[in-house]
Amino acid sequence: MLPYLSSSALVIFTEDCTGRPQKKTGEEDIISRVSIAELDALRSALSDEEPFFGEAEIAGESRAVLALKHASSHALLVVTDPHPAEPGDGTGLEMVTYLWHVAARRIQEKVADAPPSYLLESRAASAERVRVTAELTDLHSTTLETLLAALRSSSLSDAAARSTVTDLTAKALIRLRTLSDRTTDLVEEPVAKAFERLREDLRPLTSFSGVEVQFIEPPLNGRALPGEVAHAARAIVRGLVLAMMEQSDISRIRTQWDCDGENLLINVRDDGGGALTADTPSISGLERRVKALTGQLRMDVMQGWGADIFVSLPLDLPTRPVGDVAGWNLAARELEVLQHLVAGHRNRTIASTLGISENTVKFHVRNLFKKLEVGSRGEAIALAHSNGLR
To answer: 277 by DSSP, 3-state: which?
Structure first.
């Protein structure tokens, strides 16, 4: 589009590509922060045919945009800070509209005739998005339960409740803003630190709910937790605590972590009447998450004595037979770079870990694409996964 229209960033939003609904390029501050909610809201306000020039909320700020929606697929093109090459000349907009229709139609065709590698990539990306969404849902649930508890508290005046809720909301927004960076950067976390973060997450809720939550700390010298295990463990415990608090006869919940060197061991127990069951929707949902991590959840319930729930999460991925990667003829360094790609690391992280430059990493990645006969990092990751490479 550059001969006709310059811009600060370009974003395509299409639900035809379930694994990667956003395709974007341009200024990092925009493309790293633009959200599906913002794009969906803009798309809903557009007609199917007419280009939109105006202000819209993109990447957390009101920006000048050009937006176009494709009639048949409802795919959306958003260009931020658009500047036509010739102001007042409609030819440029006509060409941009034409190019967009070609691109949107091509996206539909590619999805309809998707190769296996694309489907694997899409499925992997979808699973990752579901995981992140589930964690954000847990975090929102905890925050909202805390706000409601503060607002309903009979021990707080109206002014104190407003002040408390304002402070809690501000802290929650900061946590949500930093969650993505924290998730990306965190490779592993000391078990004691991970448990302390759980305590901090639950402390506001325990302050206003009237339920005493006891924390039995893990040994300080326990093995560090992989980042995904630490995140999942906190989310699982938050979910269990919230499920237990939904009972009317609860006064105390105890949560305990331990580590046997191979597994993170979680125990959450309440003093309720024993109304929780494995069929309770919130419990069955958490059990599915535990199984997705190849973990185990066991639930003991005694009428009049409450529920006792045990969760075991393995710290290491299960070993899988590796496929015939020898046929790829990868050099030792190329295999290392591929393993880092599979782990989701960016070029800068790979370069720092291996002690090489980013340009060298890019050189190895290009060689990987040629040897694996793929066209993107996602396809390379999917192919590696299908051959058991972790």
So the answer is: coil
What CATH number is attached to the domain comprising 86? 3.30.450
Name, in order, each residue with C-beta under 8 angstroms of 141's C-beta and a sequence gap of 6 or more. Answer: 238, 239, 242
pLDDT recorded at residue 294: 80
pLDDT digits (tens, 9 = 90+) for 178-228: 655 444 444 567 888 888 888 888 887 777 778 888 999 888 777 788 766
Check which CATH number belongs to the domain holding 378 and give it. 1.10.10.10
Question: Phi and psi of 285, rounded to 5°?
Answer: -65, -40
Q: Which residues lie closer than 8 Å to 50 by C-beta, 6 or more apart? A: none
Contacts of 13 (CB under 8 A, 6+ apart): 21, 22, 36, 39, 40, 43, 75, 76, 78
Predicted structure pTM score: 0.43
Are residues 107 and 76 in contact, defined by beta-carbon separation less than 8 angstroms? Answer: no
- Residue pair 141/238 in contact (Cβ under 8 Å)? The answer is yes
Are 293 and 231 within 8 A, CB to CB? no
| Whole-number Å distance between alpha carbons of 26 and 270 | 51
